[in-house]
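Quick one, tokens below:
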């Protein structure tokens, strides 16, 4: 997210941005040490300022929406701009939903299910998304192609290493065999 945020925002959130920057994490005003994964201040193609709060989740938990609502609220109070919230879910879940409800609150957010996205689109698309390929449909079949895409890119050696390391970590979420296969390739 730090190095490829515009591509991630464009692909996963469907928002074209002119510019964006990760913002500082909020000071902890409560005893909680929790904080949002990736708060991004962006300007969209129409010049509107947006605060995008991204939360990455390996697995779904019923507290995830409450945590996101907490982060969103604290960022909104500080920055006072239009805010859009996202949970990027990396592994399948039958109970994941884009809405939290209780007896008083209804909170809707954007739930991005990486595992239902087609990896074939990504290996033809933005290089920065290649590390996500193992998590996507057809990901295991496209692992070598995503690896090759990164290695043949014009990125610096350090950038390639970062992308490959990210892909290895995400491969390990899917299966130990994918991780071993990727490591053996290198």
């Amino acid at each position: 997210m730090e190095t490829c945020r515009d591509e991630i925002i464009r692909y996963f959130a469907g928002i074209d941005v002119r510019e964006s920057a990760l913002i500082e994490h909020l000071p902890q005003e409560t005893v909680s040490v929790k904080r949002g994964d990736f708060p991004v201040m962006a300007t969209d193609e129409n010049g509107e300022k947006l605060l995008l709060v991204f939360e990455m989740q390996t697995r779904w938990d019923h507290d995830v929406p409450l945590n996101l609502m907490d982060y969103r609220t604290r960022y909104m109070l500080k920055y006072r701009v239009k805010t859009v919230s996202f949970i990027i879910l990396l592994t399948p879940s039958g109970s994941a939903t884009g809405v939290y409800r209780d007896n008083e609150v209804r909170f809707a957010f954007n739930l991005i299910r990486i595992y239902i996205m087609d990896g074939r689109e990504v290996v033809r698309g933005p290089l920065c998304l290649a590390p996500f390929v193992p998590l996507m449909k057809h990901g295991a079949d496209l692992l070598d192609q995503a690896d090759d895409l990164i290695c043949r890119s014009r990125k610096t050696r350090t950038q390639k290493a970062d992308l490959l390391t990210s892909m290895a970590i995400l491969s390990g979420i899917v299966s130990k065999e994918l991780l071993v296969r990727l490591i053996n390739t290198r």
